[in-house]
Amino acid sequence: MEVVPLDSADEVAALAADTIEAAVRAQPGTVLGLATGSTPLATYQELIRRHRAGGGPSYDDVRCFTLDEYVGLPPGHPESYRATIARELTDPLGIAAERVHGPDPAEADLPSAGERYEAELRAAGGVDLQLLGIGSDGHLAFNEPGSSLGSLTRIKTLTDRTRRDNARFFGSVDDVPRHVLTQGLGTILRARHLLLLATGAGKAEALAAAVEGPVSASCPASVLQLHPHVSVLVDPPAASGLG
Ligand code: F6R
């Protein structure tokens, strides 16, 4: 695992954008794994800025897979991760909607939705570069503490802490769904390169546990220590708990 301390959140976004652009340029049909939440937004804005300025790579043949999705939101809800990723990244980059995949919470049989998503990921040849954020409780995607380190895409229940953390997107914690479909930790570990972004003091404790603590389901992000190619980009407040 390579931890890269940077001087600011803007530098994290710039280096993350460099890494994503390099992956897209490196091979036709790159498969990108995308995260939602606040942390990657500055990276996405930087990619869009470069694309509009004419300096970015072509995204025409890129395929994208999101990490997770809320269960129970009406179709097209603006806070669904499908709508969010289209608005914040893939539409502005001109990536066609059919090239953007996510776990489908509309499946009548939710457990089979997880298996279907695993099959889609396999059929695409796996994820080349997976962008990740970390929850303040150490969650990765929506694998909350206690998640199996080998888990695959499945339904999970959000903790009260994560629902409170995400209430800012919904106006009220009562409106945050309780259930999600999420890639498992085992799914995430199959991606060829993992790029974890952590910014802000709220992530310091979880980041230190993930990077320097024992590998344990108590801190799901600690599973990253088992992967051979992980880059962690951190700003000074997020790095403040590292030894
Ligand atoms: C989002 C996701 C989550 C977030 C995490 C951090 O797709 O999988 O694990 O990365 O909750 O969220 P922010 O960036 O909003 O602090």
UniProtKB/TrEMBL annotation:
> Which controlled-vocabulary keywords does the entry list?
Allosteric enzyme, Carbohydrate metabolism, Hydrolase
For this protein, the record's Pfam families field holds: Glucosamine_iso (PF01182)
What catalytic activity does the UniProt entry give for this protein?
A: alpha-D-glucosamine 6-phosphate + H2O = beta-D-fructose 6-phosphate + NH4(+)
**Record-marked site positions (Part of the allosteric site):** 147, 154, 156-157
Identify the residues that the record assigns to the Glucosamine/galactosamine-6-phosphate isomerase domain, covering every copy.
9-225
- The superkingdom of the source organism is Bacteria
Query: Where is it found, in Gene Ontology cellular component terms?
Result: cytoplasm
Q: Name one GO biological process term.
A: N-acetylglucosamine catabolic process
Classification via CDD domains: GlcN6P_deaminase
List the molecular function annotations (GO) for this entry: glucosamine-6-phosphate deaminase activity; identical protein binding
Output the InterPro entries linked to this UniProt entry.
Glc/Gal-6P_isomerase, Glucosamine6P_isomerase, Glucosamine6P_isomerase_CS, NagB/RpiA_transferase-like
Query: Does Nucleus show up as a keyword for this record?
Result: no
Catalytic machinery residues: 68, 137, 139, 144
**Pathway terms, separated by semicolons:** Amino-sugar metabolism; N-acetylneuraminate degradation; D-fructose 6-phosphate from N-acetylneuraminate: step 5/5
Q: How is the activity of this protein regulated?
A: Allosterically activated by N-acetylglucosamine 6-phosphate (GlcNAc6P).
What EC number(s) are associated with this protein in UniProt? 3.5.99.6
General function of this protein = Catalyzes the reversible isomerization-deamination of glucosamine 6-phosphate (GlcN6P) to form fructose 6-phosphate (Fru6P) and ammonium ion.
Query: Family assignment?
Result: Belongs to the glucosamine/galactosamine-6-phosphate isomerase family. NagB subfamily.
Q: What is this protein called?
A: Glucosamine-6-phosphate deaminase
> What is the source species?
Nocardioides immobilis
